[in-house]
């Protein structure tokens, strides 16, 4: 037993001595000049590349900022500041991440990392993630073009699909619309296919007054013309004075006397109500009875 333990200790000492001897020979034969030169060269390349990308990032963002600052118009109604700020931020972020991607690629290449293999592996994962994020990407791309093409702005009255209301907020992923009843609708940008903007051009106020064909329609028209001459100067929002189109059959079993008024956007509702109320009051005072609408009980 004693001899076995002694032989084991001698063998362990011999192995340790052998390892130390191999390590010493490795240290002695190691090319320190080459290693230090390679490390310094790598550090120099890293510092140089970092400085170049830092300058590129600074100059690029400054050019983007200067480009947006030079895009100023005297009339800013068609280029809202919130959209301009959103596009500016988005452009800077896209440029920043593009520079960051190429910077990391350059750093890994200098360090000798097999970037091609990493990209191949990342490509498989990106395909899996992309399948689940298609809607998200579509929202962002659509939101960017909505802002770029100035389709609508905050505060404008629009109709997006089946939803009508005032634009409350515009984002790169969703658009918020405040409905007429106070409901706040969140609409994914990818769902916006048809935009009807009621706030860009002059709007038409359409007024239909039911008439009795047995009455003197010409007399009704004269009364309406008198009301038009009286009320039109009171509304600066009217762009085209009221026009009497004559008797029209709207297809619901009644005849109407139709009047159109063109107004600035947003004022058509108020002007339509005010003029209709004045028409009905004047016709009633003149002895005209406005027929009740026909009820369909089928």
Automatic annotation (TrEMBL):
<dbReference type="InterPro" id="IPR010920">
    <property type="entry name" value="LSM_dom_sf"/>
</dbReference>
<dbReference type="InterPro" id="IPR045276">
    <property type="entry name" value="YbiO_bact"/>
</dbReference>
<keyword id="KW-0472">Membrane</keyword>
<feature type="transmembrane region" description="Helical">
    <location>
        <begin position="94"/>
        <end position="116"/>
    </location>
</feature>
<feature type="transmembrane region" description="Helical">
    <location>
        <begin position="39"/>
        <end position="59"/>
    </location>
</feature>
<dbReference type="Pfam" id="PF21088">
    <property type="entry name" value="MS_channel_1st"/>
</dbReference>
<dbReference type="InterPro" id="IPR023408">
    <property type="entry name" value="MscS_beta-dom_sf"/>
</dbReference>
<protein>
    <submittedName>
        <fullName>Small-conductance mechanosensitive channel</fullName>
    </submittedName>
</protein>
<keyword id="KW-1133">Transmembrane helix</keyword>
<dbReference type="Pfam" id="PF00924">
    <property type="entry name" value="MS_channel_2nd"/>
</dbReference>
<comment type="similarity">
    <text>Belongs to the MscS (TC 1.A.23) family.</text>
</comment>
<dbReference type="GO" id="GO:0005886">
    <property type="term" value="C:plasma membrane"/>
</dbReference>
<feature type="domain" description="Mechanosensitive ion channel MscS">
    <location>
        <begin position="137"/>
        <end position="200"/>
    </location>
</feature>
<keyword id="KW-0812">Transmembrane</keyword>
<feature type="domain" description="Mechanosensitive ion channel transmembrane helices 2/3">
    <location>
        <begin position="93"/>
        <end position="134"/>
    </location>
</feature>
<dbReference type="InterPro" id="IPR006685">
    <property type="entry name" value="MscS_channel_2nd"/>
</dbReference>
<comment type="function">
    <text>May play a role in resistance to osmotic downshock.</text>
</comment>
<dbReference type="InterPro" id="IPR049142">
    <property type="entry name" value="MS_channel_1st"/>
</dbReference>
<dbReference type="InterPro" id="IPR011014">
    <property type="entry name" value="MscS_channel_TM-2"/>
</dbReference>
<dbReference type="InterPro" id="IPR011066">
    <property type="entry name" value="MscS_channel_C_sf"/>
</dbReference>
<feature type="transmembrane region" description="Helical">
    <location>
        <begin position="122"/>
        <end position="148"/>
    </location>
</feature>
<keyword id="KW-1003">Cell membrane</keyword>
<dbReference type="GO" id="GO:0008381">
    <property type="term" value="F:mechanosensitive monoatomic ion channel activity"/>
</dbReference>
């Amino acid at each position: 037993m004693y001899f076995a333990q002694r032989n084991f200790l001698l063998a362990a000492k011999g192995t340790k001595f052998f390892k130390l001897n191999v390590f010493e020979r490795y240290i002695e034969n190691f090319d320190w000049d080459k290693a230090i030169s390679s490390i310094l060269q790598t550090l120099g390349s890293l510092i140089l590349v970092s400085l170049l990308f830092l300058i590129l990032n600074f100059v690029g963002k400054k050019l983007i900022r200067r480009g947006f600052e030079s895009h100023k118009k005297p009339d800013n109604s068609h280029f809202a500041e919130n959209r301009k700020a959103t596009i500016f931020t988005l452009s800077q972020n896209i440029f920043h991440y593009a520079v960051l991607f190429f910077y990391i690629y350059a750093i890994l290449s200098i360090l000798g990392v097999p970037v091609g293999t990493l990209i191949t592996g990342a490509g498989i994962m990106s395909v899996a993630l992309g399948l689940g994020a298609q809607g998200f990407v579509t929202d962002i791309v659509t939101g960017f073009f909505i802002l770029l093409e100035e389709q609508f702005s905050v505060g404008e009255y629009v109709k997006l699909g089946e939803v009508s209301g005032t634009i409350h907020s515009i984002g790169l992923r969703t658009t918020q619309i405040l409905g007429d009843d106070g409901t706040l609708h969140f609409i994914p940008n990818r769902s916006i296919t048809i935009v009807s903007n009621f706030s860009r051009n002059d709007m038409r106020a359409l007024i239909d007054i039911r008439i009795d064909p047995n009455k003197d329609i010409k007399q009704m028209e004269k009364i309406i013309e008198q009301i038009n001459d009286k009320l039109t100067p009171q509304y600066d929002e009217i762009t085209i004075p009221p026009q009497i189109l004559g008797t029209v059959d709207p297809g619901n079993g009644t005849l109407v006397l139709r009047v159109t008024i063109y107004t600035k956007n947003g004022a058509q509702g108020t002007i339509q109500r005010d003029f209709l109320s004045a028409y009905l009051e004047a016709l009633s005072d003149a002895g005209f009875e406005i027929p009740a609408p026909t009820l369909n009980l089928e």
